[in-house]
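PROTOCOL LOG
Step 1. Enter all chains and additional molecules of the complex.
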Amino acid sequence: MAETVTIGSKSYSVNIRRSGSSFRLQIDDRDYDGEFSRLNNGSLEIIIDGRRSITYSEKKLDDSYVFADGINYVLRRQSQKVGSVVQDEPREDLVMSPITGKLLDRKGENGSSVREGDVIIVLEAMKMEHRLRSPRDGIISRITSIEIGGQVKEGEIMFELEDE
Amino acid sequence: MIKKILIANRGEIACRIIKACKEMQISAVAVYSDVDSESPHVLMADEAILIGPANPSESYLDFDKIVDAAKQTNSDAIHPGYGFLSENGDFAKYVNDSDLVFIGPDPDTIKLMGDKAESKKMMAEAGVPTIPGNDGELSGNVDAVARDIGYPLMVKAAAGGGGKGMRIVESPEELESAIEAASSEARNSFGNDTLILEKYLDQPRHLEVQILGDQQGNVIHLYERECSIQRRHQKIIEESPSPAINNKLRKMMCEAAVKAAKVVNYSNAGTVEFLFQDGKFYFLEMNTRIQVEHGVTEMVCGIDLVKWQIRVADGEALDFTQNDVKQRGHSIECRVYAEDPSRDFLPTPGLIRKMILPEGSGIRNDVGVSEGQEVTSDYDPLLAKVVVWDSCRNSAINRMDYALSNFIILGLITNQPFLRDIMKSESYRKASFSTRFVDEHFSDWELGPPSPEVIATALLASKSAPEKVSTVSSRDPYSPWSNKGTWRQNI
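Step 2. Run joint prediction.
Step 3. Record the structure below.
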């Protein structure tokens, strides 16, 4: 089954078929034939087009961490379902925390009227401050109820806007 | 006589100091917070004392808890490392008043150099070149002061450092919000929102001179470090010597640094930072502690700075003179951070699932994390420093790229690919850069497209892979697996 692999901001449609130590890998419209085996230290030996690489990988939920070609990669994997939308369009009204860290300040409450560029949320992670600004003029319809000093997770909704 | 040292820090610098202690047959005591109970510095030390929760103000910044831990373990001295309490004059005094040795300069020197406005004034009086700006605390008609200095200018916290509480102001309209942001950051980071304004140099290099002084009044320099490769005003790559200056300028700058240190009767290790533009250098600040990037100086000078910090604090005199200190070959440091260079260097905490460090001649790793460790968002995202030495700059760059290409760290996003791309770039090799290097050449940086091996590894790793079989082993010719003509859907 084909799946989508995302590295940074780029996504690739990939599929692999295996037969013993051989495999055929499809990345978008290109095919690669290769051989692989697992070494005693947990790494993989992969040979594609006669080129040999020793690679390492670790997995956590949908994320794969791969070391190959002297680079440490993080890949996000998603299976492709026919007819489904792979990713929702990002919504401008919803501001989420880009980091895991601590809530330092909340400069608004439900019903507050805000202007584009106003700082609404101040976060701190690894000794750096991060300010979340309002993406547009509007009214705060929802804002995080986490207490000041509390932990915020990456992707958690910080505030939502509605029209004035 | 110092026989036992408490290290009031964590991460790689705590490990670095513990190693120096062990080599000197001095016992090392670690302190740690709840989340650090299995951190490398705790495991390496001879004793370890829990001093509180993750929040630094309740642990690594708590005077009483640290001094109590030193007393409880019969320590003779406290090494503050960098960051945390290292440049807190009140802490240094508190340590000394508790009959313990503070491994660093005199508390009054720390306080004086910690006040950026006061220290700048003092350096100007001593004849060390300084950046044009307002000399004292920011007050009165700020707009007029700013107009006199001229735009662009820099608003910065008088108590600042490490890029916090600092804003560049391009035009008068931006002044008010910059002052507001800088003072709030300064208040939160340093508990002091005093700001100073100064002329903003648009293409400066950041150079600094390593100083070492003893309590007998000897002050020497260990040459310069080039620290222009920064992001968000924080250094990521440093080297020594600087490719920007000739021997004449080097001599002038190093002598100015020694002069600056002598003005304040400096003892122990310290760093005089300069901005350098158009052939001129300006005093920026003096850091009264060991620096993150001290390793490159140790590599080219062959002098162990941390050991000398301890010896000098113990009353020993330097056993070498300025003439004995030579800058040999070239050294580069890359800081491996838990951060995402493609998303504005946002911190990226996570669990280190695998870590293999590079090895080889001329490669040194100063590491503060280990496999299986959770990197939390409570502390600085510095994971490790890779330091290399080789005979010339070009060879050192090649060696660094080799070292980075053998640095395996899986389980979280790091800047390792970004550092490699800088090492490979023409712009870094040419060395005609300023502190704007990252903005100018790498602001839209993204990881390059992966090779098929990368994707294959991700897809194959989760499946049961065959063990490597030697080519002489017999295979069943009738097995469906040996039939290479047909492809089987993977299950």
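Step 4. Note key features.
Residues 83-89 of chain A have pLDDT under 50 and may be disordered.
Chain A touches chain B through 64 residues (CB under 8 Å).
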